[in-house]
Amino acid sequence: SFLLEFAVTTTDNTAVQIYDLLGQRVYDQELGSFNGVFSQQIDVTNLANGLYVVKVIHGGSTYEDKILIKH
Question: What is the average per-residue pLDDT within 38-67?
């Protein structure tokens, strides 16, 4: 697992998604109408080793970063 943390100052529909490099969504957590600080361990034990893209979608904005999973 890894710790994902972010903060948003406006209230809007928010989701956390993880995609593999083929573009398939392998994790999806809908937070609904969210505002404030998010800090949560994300369980990735079911995912294969490799590079993934983490997306945080907040309203009309998308923030993304890459993570490398090694078991």
Answer: 97
0.85 exceeded by the pTM? yes
Average pLDDT over residues 13-39: 97
Q: Tokens 């995609």 sit at which residue?
A: 19
Render the burial of 34-52: b for 16+ CB within 10 Å, e for the rest: beeebeeeeebeebeeeeb
CB 54 within 8 A of CB 67: yes
Q: Report the DSSP beta bridge partners of residue 6.
A: 38
List, in sequence order, every beta strand (DSSP E) within the chain.
2-20, 25-42, 50-58, 61-69
- Single-letter amino acid code for the residue at 48: A
d(CA 61, CA 71): 31
